[in-house]
Design goal:
The protein is of the alpha+beta class. Helix content is 39%, strand content 12%.
């Protein structure tokens, strides 16, 4: 029984070490808040500000957004407050794997959702 527990502990330590190494080897987010995963697939962890800007969508100032990114205690309300209350209707940003269109944070009347 003790051998089994020791082996499980060793396996747990090995798995945690491998996970940590994987996380350390993954590239950090770029200036557009995206990164590639271990298979090279680019994806976003936040709204794609560079794409939104390129498509002419309304967005917060980069300085405000970067200030929020640099804090660990930013609340949801502070993230929302960084966006203008009114803007242009959000452009189509992409399609989900299920075929549902993905838009930015403004509805068709330009109201922040």
């Amino acid at each position: 029984m003790l051998t089994l527990v020791a082996n499980n502990n060793n396996l747990f330590i090995l798995l945690c070490t491998l996970l940590l190494l994987l996380l350390l080897l993954l590239p950090p987010q770029d200036q557009c808040f995206g990164r590639s995963d271990e298979l090279g697939r680019y994806h976003y962890h936040q709204l794609p500000l560079c794409l939104l800007e390129l498509l002419g969508g309304t967005m917060p100032s980069r300085s405000e957004w970067n200030k929020l990114r640099g804090t660990n205690n930013a609340t949801l309300s502070s993230w929302i407050a960084a966006w203008p209350v009114r803007g242009t209707p959000s452009p189509l940003l992409g399609w989900g794997l299920d075929g549902v269109p993905i838009y930015g944070p403004y509805d068709e009347t330009g109201t922040l959702l």
